[in-house]
Amino acid sequence: MNEEIATWTDEFGGVYTADKKRLLMVPDVKRYRIVEGCEAVDEYAFDGCDKLEVLYVPYTFSEEEVDRVLYIMPETVGNVCTWDRPYVDEVYDVNEYWHEENDTIMDAYGVVYANGGRRLLMMTRPELIGKEYMVPDGVLTICDGAFEVCKDYLVLSAPRSIKVIGDYLFGEDGGKIVIRD
């Protein structure tokens, strides 16, 4: 008996059951975010998926299903990011993978930004910063661990435009953030 399954396809080519609870086919893209509300992945969903490097798993997956996905996905996937709350808009996402590789700029202090300067990714040259750093106006996100290579206590002066600040921001000596007027 061969039943036809009603499906729904997202804008990237991911195929789901009509209720979006099960992912049937992962598209062959570099980064893929499984839709919120999905709860399971079909055993053969990764067939023909060669480009995938990063997979984002929604908060609706159980720990058991996340473990199963890790078992069935291809070895090319270097990062699996699980969420414990609904996804945020990628403009505010503290995960550094949501930027194009050729869309980064570095300021005179060795701080790297992406998405037209809206996302602060990381500090690369702690010796250039000193004890205080002024985050430019217009930055929306400071990513997880952005200043973790900092060896001294650091004071960040951040603009009011900041919407999201990531976790584990500073290195071993810590620091603080001051939101300026």
Could you walk me through the main structural features you see in this protein, from its secondary elements to its overall organization?
By secondary structure, the protein is mostly beta strands. Helices cover 8% and strands 29% of the residues. The chain is built from two helices and 15 strands. It has helices at residues 63-72, 126-129, and strands at residues 7-9, 15-17, 22-25, 31-33, 40-41, 54-57, 79-82, 104-106, 111-114, 119-123, 132-134, 141-142, 154-158, 164-165, 175-179. The chain has a five-stranded mixed beta sheet, with no helix packed on it. Strands 1-2-3-5 form a four-stranded mixed beta sheet, with no helix packed on it. β8 (104-106) and β9 form a beta hairpin. The mean pLDDT is 85.
Q: Shape, please?
A: elongated
Number of strands: 15
Structural class: mainly beta
Please give the largest β-sheet.
Answer: 5 strands, mixed
Strand order of the largest sheet: 8-9-10-12-14
* Cα-atom radius of gyration: 20 Å
Count of helical segments? 2
How far is the N terminus from the C terminus?
67 Å
Q: How much of the residues is beta strand, in percent?
A: 25-35%
Low-confidence runs: none
Order of helices and strands: EEEEEEHEEEEHEEEEE
Q: Helicity level, as a percent range? A: under 10%
Mean pLDDT: 85
Keywords:
2 helices, mainly beta, 4-stranded mixed sheet, single chain, 181 residues
Task: Give a short overview.
By secondary structure, this protein is mainly β. 8% of the residues lie in helices and 29% in strands.
